[in-house]
Write a structure and sequence with these properties.
The complex is a heterodimer of chains A (831) and B (143).
Chain A: E1 2-4, E2 7-9, H1 17-23, E3 30-31, E4 38-39, E5 52-55, E6 58-62, E7 73-75, H2 102-105, H3 113-124, E8 140-144, E9 148-151, H4 155-166, E10 171-174, H5 187-201, E11 205-208, E12 213-217, E13 221-225, E14 229-233, E15 237-240, E16 244-246, E17 259-261, H6 262-270, E18 279-284, H7 289-299, E19 302-306, E20 309-314, E21 321-326, E22 329-334, E23 337-341, E24 344-346, H8 349-353, E25 359-361, E26 379-381, E27 386-387, H9 388-396, H10 402-409, H11 422-430, H12 454-457, H13 472-477, E28 481-485, E29 488-493, H14 497-506, E30 509-512, E31 517-522, H15 526-533, E32 546-552, E33 558-568, E34 571-576, H16 581-595, E35 600-603, E36 608-614, H17 618-625, E37 640-645, E38 648-655, E39 662-668, H18 672-682, E40 689-690, H19 693-702, H20 737-744, E41 750-757, E42 767-770, E43 773-784, E44 789-797, E45 806-809, E46 812-817
Parallel strand pairs in A: 1-7, 8-14, 9-10, 9-15, 10-11, 15-25, 17-23, 18-19, 18-23, 30-40
Antiparallel strand pairs in A: 1-2, 3-4, 5-6, 5-7, 12-13, 13-14, 16-24, 20-21, 21-22, 26-27, 28-29, 30-36, 31-34, 31-35, 32-33, 33-34, 36-39, 37-38, 38-39, 41-44, 41-46, 42-43, 43-44, 45-46
Helix pairs in contact in A: 4-5, 6-7, 14-19
Chain B: E1 3-7, E2 11-15, H1 18-25, E3 30-34, E4 37-41, H2 47-57, E5 62-65, E6 70-76, H3 80-87, E7 97-103, E8 106-112, E9 116-122, H4 126-136
Antiparallel strand pairs in B: 1-6, 2-4, 2-5, 3-4, 6-9, 7-8, 8-9
Helix pairs in contact in B: 1-2
The chains are: A alpha+beta (831), B alpha+beta (143).
Chain lengths: 831, 143
Amino acid sequence: MFEFEGQTIPISEGDTIASALFRSGVRVFSRSFKYHRRRGLYCLTGDCPNCLLTVDGEPAVRACVTDAKPGQHVRREVGWPSADRDLFGLLDRMHRLLPVGFYYKTLLRPRWLWPRIEPLVRRMTGLGTIPPASPAASREVRHLHPDVMVVGGGTAGLSAALTAAEAGRSVVICDEGRLGEKVAPGAVRERIDELAALARASEAITLLERTPAVGIYEGPLVVLNEPSFLHLVHPQEVVVATGAVELHGVFPGNDLPGVWLGRGAARLAGVHGVLPGKRVVLVGGTDEVEAHAETLRTAGADVTRVDGEIVAARGRRCVESVVVTVDGEHKELPCDALVLSRGLVPRNGLALQASGLPVTVVGDAAGADEPQSAPRSGVVCLCEDVGVEDLAAAWSEGFRSTEILKRYTTATMGPCQGALCQRHVRAFVASKPGATGPASARTTARPPVRGITLEEVSAGVRDELHQETALHRRHLQLGATMEPAGVWQRPRHYGDVVAEYWAVRKGVSVMDVGTLGKFLVAGPDAGAFLERLYPCRVADLRPGRIRYALLLGEHGFVVDDGVICALGNGRWYVTFTSAGASAAEPTLRDWADTWGHEIHLVDLTAAYGAVNVAGPRARELLQRLAGDPIDNAEFPYLNHREITVAGVPCRAIRLGFVGELSYELHHPSDRSVELWDALLEAGRELDIRPHGLDALRLLRLEKGHIIVGQDTDFDATPAKLDMSWAVRLDKPWFVGKRGIERAAAHEPLRRLAAMSFAGHAPAEGSPLRTNGRNVGYLTSSGWSHVLGCGVALGWLEQENGAIPSELECDGTVGTVTHDPFYDPAGARLRA
Amino acid sequence: MLELTAVPPDVVGCYAKPAALDELAGDAPAIRVAPDELLLLRARENLGALERELARLDSYGIAVDLSSAFAVWALRGDDRAEAFCRLSQIPLPAPPATVQGLVAQVPAKVVVGPDELLLLVPSVVSHHLHTRVLTACADLVHA
């Protein structure tokens, strides 16, 4: 048993939610999208929108293809106070007030009206409500690689699967239901059961039931939505055997509860043993009519067969009679179920998505999409509540093709994706005088052909992917507050930013800079390659020396920076910023390929960790752990050496990003913890403490050093950054040289400038003003503890070759400076 | 049943002309990442000899110990193929073989052995692979 709006519903073997509810007397399963008309079971093949219910909080569940299970909680989605007695049903008498596309042309004035009305419209229309507090997603994906993927487990699909398996090919076959369950007992059902038994016994066939195919993509890739997994199938060949959907009948009263498609009525009676009605009128002339009639009679229905045209179905709450024309004569036949079997329409939405892909369509899905007569009256699109009258109104307003009728009326855009209504929309267009062939062409078929939740779409993709250095756990143990920095997790601080700052300025500190991009460049053309890549000189760099380098794009804009270390023997070790590391390799390889340079590029970013030991007592600390000479004479500023620190082999690089004596220790990352621990232990007497990004940003700002990405903009040339010293225009060529030369012909409109502020440091991003006019904005700002003022970098407009010298910003006054704020001569770096 | 085990990485990257790498590879367990790039497994101890051999084959050839660049995870047990298909869209070839591509959304080299799958991923995302295997294969994992 399951619960349905306070009632207890018994379940019989093989029941779907729909069949169990119908057996218990439920006739109204939903209300229509717009006019709140009563809707009952119709197709029972999962094609129409009539039985969409909320099951266990999940909206829009197709009750006719969903197993009934004990303990389920089921409710209908629309209707107030209930779907049975829905006061919004009054809307069905207000068609004149709610014409097609009414929201495009009504409620526009006064302007305050629509924002107030819109929430009401949204509440009154549509399908179910997505629960705001859904549990976290837990679905996973499975990738399958069969030779053949067969979609559809009817006779055609099973036959194709068995044929492929006999030929020695591996096969995956899926069906949105259980094999044969939608087919009433009879010859077809027996054939399906026979083939299904063979398929189940075949080792070459993987059978996935209750698994609708959602779409076909390039590859080919077929997406299957199984209850427990989202299957991504990568076959060599796809066979679409999705069968056909019965022709939807369009006539007045066609959406009354009690109007059925033939296969649905036969399934309800033959499979679930429930009569769709006691007095059944069966209209149609297909090959299946006789079988449907037999099934219904066997189940106990009084069946009247009619081979004629339906004029209208009549009834107040459900079908009570049907008016038909037979041999030119009108007849009104009383009934409580009207069953339609008037033809088949290929269910080929999947196949139509697969243009150009190795896809074969078999069975009824490959049937001809035959033209038909235009509908005259009735509901064309059950999903979106669009009638023939709505199509006519849209046509008269100038929407004169299936594609734009679709967009304006939303016909074919509902859960069935046009499976039922598209043929009628096309027939409507084709019947119009002057309509050309393309006007009535099919609309574009796109996934999904079956509804899929966002949770299902995101299966397997829910863990945040970030990179961690080898010291990640150490940072956490030291109480670091981590922050995402590009793809990395990095320590922002360890609890006391000011103390970390002073450790660098007065004592010694360490920072994990293993996030830097690190590459070895070698090969016969390595030197020539780097000379062309960088705007600085490379060839004159002696082994043991390093040089700061900008990396430019072709237009001469700064895209990254780093250092070049000459190793000798045609080898270089180059670094990039942490944010630029991932882009560095493809950039370098692109240029090498472009120039035909033979180089070896080894990405050492993960292989090497790096720890920056900085502060006036950095040398003192390292001398306790390193046996190699590191004094200024042996190891001066802007040099690198191979040294061993606490037993760990390191490439030490003397740099000065934070403006103090610094040694960047690059080492195998699997020894990072060993090195870090040794440094902290040896530095205990020196009051060593690690520093994080907050302290780093301030320390480098005091030196006026930029951070690429934060202080640069998309068009930042070295000149605009006041870094022309890093560019050698006397080189014959380097990446970005022409861009720089072109830019040099014009006065730059703005420049990055350093400025100091009294009183407080303005917030980063604040506008810079002079004489009441905005002239720029801050990119970096902070309070300098050592200088006792605010220090900042910001972009300033340049006029007549000059930038303003005094600025107002965030309630304080600033002065532009031209030298680094701290240690302008760089004596501390070279100590 | 599935077993996920961390394996000590032992990887040497060799970079040289393709012909030199062809000769160098021999029958050693290796992954040919690119025509001019070869990852030799279980070769760390012989790095010096490898460097000399490579220099003989190609004067610009280099051999670099990349063990710390990788984390290596072994998937063992009957369900290793099932686990792999939940983690990657790479078709799993018959052993012995090597393939490369995304596994659990991270770049990986895969060594397909008769009894195990070795997944080599950048050490900086090792934690991610570990988490993803345990999450995606929770019903399969033995330990």
